[in-house]
Batch of 4 targets.
Target 1
Amino acid sequence: MKIKFCGATGGVTGSCHLLTTLNHQILLDCGQFQGGKAQDALNYEPFQFEPSEVECVILSHAHIDHCGRLPLLMKRGFTGPIYCTSATADLLEVMLRDSGYIHEKEAEWKNKKADRTGRAKVEPLYTLKDAEKCLLQVKPILYDQLVELTPNVKIVFNDAGHILGSAITEIWVKEEDKEAKIVFSGDLGMTERPILRDPTIIKKADYVIMEATYGSRNHPKNSASIENLLKIVLETTKRGGNVIIPSFAVGRTQELIFEFNKFYEEHPEVKSQLDKIMVYVDSPMATTATEVFRKNAQVFDDETKNYILKGDNPLDFQNLRFTRSTAESQSLNMDKSPKVIISASGMCEAGRIRHHLKHNLWDSRNSIVFVGYQGEGTLGRMLVEGAKEVTLFGEVIAVNAEIHNLEGFSGHADQNGLFSWVAGFQQKPSKVFIVHGETESKETFAKLIKEKLELDPIVLTGVAEYDLDTYDVKNFEEAQLEAATDAEIQNLRQTISTIHSDLEKILYNTDLAMGNNLKADKLVRINNLAQELKKTTLNLGSVVTELDKGEKKETNAQ
Ligand SMILES: [Zn+2]
């Protein structure tokens, strides 16, 4: 068995690793390279393998640097299924369609320029149509479900707590009478973050492939930033100003909505002031992504589920408004009342946020609040670093508004988080491959786990291939037990886990759908569903009692 690291080796983008076994070629992620011209150019390069020979893709999550080249993979000959969690499948639809559209627009723009200069025309990396074709290949599966991709390859997706749907994948591969287990971390999230569950600790692996974006740093505490945000909102609006928050459409925006919902719920002392402040989410993509979040409440963490069970929709509150049309967006700049505007893109490189900055940067009553990492060379970075003026839409705008940079909002585990995740393996993996990070981050992290955990880390810095040993199955009795060799037991477990997930889905998602102003037809549908469920669960109750009785009899007999 071999593993070839084809992307996210020199930096943090383009995640793509090829697993070659005796009979199969399986791709882990197929991400786009991002961050400047040199990285962009890599996307047009041939793949490090023949796309038509890849049997299937296992996708860790819906961020473009992990999924953005999937439509291209298909364009170049791949025809197999793409496995991911169902929440990732829902988000993928938003992300890939948007990405296809952007590639088309970019090519259009370049070709207009090419016309004028007489240069050759360019072809988009892929189009919206290519993206839509690719979405048809997506096979959503549930978390914790053991799925047989082929008779020799089984996988389980575990929550990675990074964005909605993100997964840590356990992969069991059998080659003749030997086998090995590989764990692919994908991107790992921070523990104790809102909405999402903590990254799952995996106990066993022969080989680990893990990210190390923050392998050399720890994040400041997030709680102080949340308090700060409330303070900034109250102070800014009191002096008649607006609060503008550039935010990533997927993930960060929903986290902000969750925190604002809490402000309104948990701060009665400032309720009268908050009641006068409207919060606008002005990004069509963020709006769609929020709908996807609401649809997937069954994968939220317990805190968020408890909100739902208490009857509160954690991703909604009275003063929240979503603006879709351009006209609605523009009217926000006419409206003089103090407000909060959350808009994309997070680094201010594109999107509606640039209009809001143009209209708000010059006025010293306003505040601009950054809640995410600002890449080098971006407008966001210039503002955070104290630029006195910036150019927007060809106009020089003075920066008079207060600029705040709230740290601690991060979708990525920091050094402590990565360390405790890899320390969770009870059986020491033979090797830990470290990808997805700047060289310094990866090296620092490798040194740390080598010294403290006596692991054998390998830092990837470019395309490279490694042989992976397989082990005698007899040495893996426990692993075998874990993977449930008996096909019947396995199937039964799978069925039960599917029912469990489906029930959770119905419970949390219908509760969310109910809200306060429920339409009559929806009420009827949910009521029917509830009655049907009630009947079935009453019957189930008696089945469970029967099972218990049987068990007691058996124990008595012994
Ligand atoms: Zn990610």
Target 2
Amino acid sequence: MPVLTRLIPSPVVVDIRPGALDDLACVLADERISQSGRLAIAVSGGSGARLRERIAPSLPGATWFEVGGGTIDDAVRLAGDMRGGHYDAVVGLGGGKIIDCAKFAAARVGLPLVAVATNLAHDGLCSPVATLDNDAGRGSYGVPNPIAVVIDLNVVREAPVRYVRSGIGDVISNVSAVADWELSHRVNGEKIDGLAAAMARQAGEAVLRHPGGVGDDGFLQVLAEALVLTGIAMSVSGDSRPSSGACHEINHAFDLLYPRRAAAHGEQCGLGAAFAMYLRGAHEESAAMAEVLRRHGLPVLPEEIGFTVDEFVRVVEFAPETRPGRFTILEHLDLKTEQIKDVYADYVKAIGS
Ligand SMILES: [Zn+2]
């Protein structure tokens, strides 16, 4: 009988719970990941040191690599250092920068990557994309999806709360990104992947509708799972379409126009999503999204992250240029400066203060 379904590129292990780190050695000993115990582990020199102390005794065959930062040079250097070590797998242990560096380096040396995320700042912890700083600012590099993902919610809790907030904004923005994808499907006939769209939207909706807060285990569990499922949705579609639309164009525009003043990724994406929902005429959804963002301590107005209205208008105007070829509500409406100002004033009234 022919196989009529498709296979989904996905990690062989997903372990998300309080205390998951205690069983990391067990996960890594899975014969599909490391038979010999020879592992290359990438950590940061700072916060990674404590985790290293804690885990190193259970992983005697591991070699530890300190990663300098989140640039393409750091990633290339890491790959060079790992070359010739005859490892079974690379483990990225840390926040987004470390995992992205490890992802890129693992792809370069042809080894599978295990992502051990210590914060929930964005949906890159299980995605087929490595975001690294380069000479042009910041680049996204296609890489294989991690072979395993481990998230210890006790470790996540120890990270500054702004990382959790950033993850909330990033995953909630999926709802707007999928709406952009559907818009492009209707207007341009762009192919939409129903499974990827469903996974990304459900992840966004789950966090949007969860009554808990950043301090609850139940909420952190749902948030971490939502971020992982978003990454897998990107693998299913083969690009970032399920989780990146006008919300992310606005985020990129903040980063590119004001590199020194830019706020956290998820803060900018959440604000971008609430505004994009308003732009597409989904006024109730926009207000509901803004309310949830506020409840979690995320910004819904540019001034809450230190930008004037005029600067935000410039951001919205510039946003489509950050992602040529991606069609969203911004490209669809193609608003001029004065129109953006007007609609922004309406948005502010609509979400209340
Ligand atoms: Zn994002």
Target 3
Amino acid sequence: MISTPTALSIAQELLRCPSVTPADAGALGVLETLLKAAGFEVHRVTFSEVGTADIDNLYARIGTSAPHICFAGHTDVVPPGDDGAWTHGAFDGEVADGLLYGRGAVDMKGGIACAVAATLDYLAANGGQPQQSGKGSISFLITGDEEDVAVNGTVKLLQWAAERGEQFDHCIVGEPSNVEAIGDTIKIGRRGSQSGVLIVDGTQGHVAYPHRAANPVPDIARLITALNDEPLDAGSAQFQPSNLEFTSVDVGNPATNVIPAQARAKFNIRFNDHHTQETLRALVDQRLAAACGNRIRARIEWLPSNADVFVTKPGAFTDLVSASIAEVTGRTPDLNTGGGTSDARFIAKYCPVVEFGLVGQTMHQIDERTPVSDLDKLTAIYRGVLERYFA
Ligand SMILES: [Zn+2]
């Protein structure tokens, strides 16, 4: 059998490309070469938008039919910070004491390297195709635009893929999902995020003649209390309760003898799968209207958001990933929906998606690093996923 490259060697090659967002610095070329040699059809797709840098992305697929599993991720990284503070160079790909150092080691060149190594190894053992029957597809959806503005990355790449008829059945995003040890956490979803501004209109006037004015300050206090006091829900099977959090109250009034014309309060809602952005906005608008009655003049200005809630319900696919994790690590992963947002929320519009990668502890830090043994474990887990998926 031909020996395939290890996750470590692929990760080192990727780390040596200083692909600080939005630069690519050759990182996608490393993947292109490896995947082409294994028989993948590889597309390099560049997206541009006025005011942002042109971004290179990669889509590669082997096989033409279902079932189709996709590995998704990004090769751009955050800046290294103070270069001199690194124990081993941020872009040297050095291994010391069993640890691989470098910006992107865990977020997430290491994860991509494991997915590629696992796939190449799996294909080599299977006559070069996902299934002996010739059925099945494996793809890689890799963007160079995740860490910063992310306008020329995953969203556009998914649209591009959909337009050419690509259909994904399942997706794994190799973001560092684990908290303490590899195998402890699979992210199966994330809460949605929606911000807004509560605006209460009054009538400006002199404090000595309050009957000629309408003071929005006590009214905004009443409305904040009303919106805060009533829970949005009691949580769901996969999520904690949704939370509305006021973050500021602004009147902008430097005077003590003037009743202000308007008061504003900013807030953010982290919401679960009891809501969509539309139903959530409608619910809060309706509660506001009830709290205002006929007297208070208030409205909410909803801020644009593309962070809708998503969840991949526990089932056959999460079972298969969990089984592979248990086989390699002996751990039963927590199926978690906590934390902030990631590109998985965009992929969730196309197919069930989970996030599972390395341990996130050192991501975005000086001396970002991963044990080489974790790379081996993650590669074995991904390989186990492929075996089970195509069995
Ligand atoms: Zn990342």
Target 4
Amino acid sequence: MSATRLRGPDLLRAVAEGTAGAVGEEFLRSLVRSVAEAFGSKLVFVGEAHDAHVTVVAGYFDGEFIGPFGYDTEGQPCALITEYPVVAIPEALTAAFPEDVAAADLGLESYLAVCLRASDGRHLGHLAVLDSRRMEAEDDDLAALRIFAARAAAELERRAQAAELEASRARVVAAADAERRRVGRDLHDGAQQRLLAVSNLLRVARKQVDGPGRELLDTAAEELQLAHAELRELARGLHPVALAERGLPEALASLTAAATVPVELEVSDEELREPVATAAYFLVAECLANAVRHASARGMAVRVQRSAEALEIEVADDGIGGADLTAGTGLRGLADRLDVLGGRLSLDSPPGAGTRVRATIPL
Ligand SMILES: Nc1ncnc2c1ncn2[C@@H]1O[C@H](COP(=O)(O)OP(=O)(O)OP(=O)(O)O)[C@@H](O)[C@H]1O
Ligand SMILES: [Mg+2]
């Protein structure tokens, strides 16, 4: 590692060059490396604060990237950074902070940290520079560091927002699923049971009636049976009882058996987390419905199998093609559901050549 210590404008230029063009996660990595090189220091890291705990989201020690890892700030110089914009301890770090065992272990004796704040002033974490030798920091050096600290803060804020967005999407999907389950169960326990009761009444009534009235009762019974079948279909779409009770292969088997086009089904029996099995089920259900509604398909094939680290699902039909992810809510909703699970949806649907939907869900 170079021991040359750059200062003020040179420091600014070196770090600007070292981080030029880097965005997102990569920015933090290029930042810690170029600050470490410009300072000629042993350790540089960006820490994200969660009360008295810090997560090192990017670190560079002795010429190598380190982290992520976490530590508690109690008894550490980092505990001061919530109160000051800059904390500088040019030497004798371990004498001042005997509880900082890690600093002692790594032979770190000087410390410089710049506080990272969100746009609304919230404390987000800090950018820290540590070395084994005495470390002076002039105003110019600090000014340079603070420019990059502002960018690092923006990056931490972006990460937190992205994580929050992801969590909120997962909550939306979970809430929608819970609601579907509730409505599905209500249909099953309420309306479906009532229809059964009416159907029994009709049977009894039929035995007691003769003439034209009897025909009317027959028609009513047929209508009732259709209504019951439709309701059962609806309930199955909302809350796949079979999935929870008998697992994905059997749930898909009864789903495909009920389809109005012949479906070739190949599904391996895997231990799956509930959201993964649910996503796979709804994906197949939506693609079957689409093939029947839009594709004029004569046949379909559904394949669900496990690769090394993912569940691979493929649904193909031999219909008219031309499926469009942006034209409805069905495919879009599936893509969102997969996104929440870290999965991907891809659509291959050239006009006239059938439709193939592929999904990968990491396990
Ligand atoms: N298998 C298919 N073959 C041909 N076209 C399809 C197929 N699947 C979907 N499409 C086309 O892509 C569009 C979007 O499908 P999507 O499932 O997102 O919406 P939808 O089925 O129209 O409505 P819903 O929101 O009820 O699912 C459909 O309107 C249809 O035009
Ligand atoms: Mg659809």
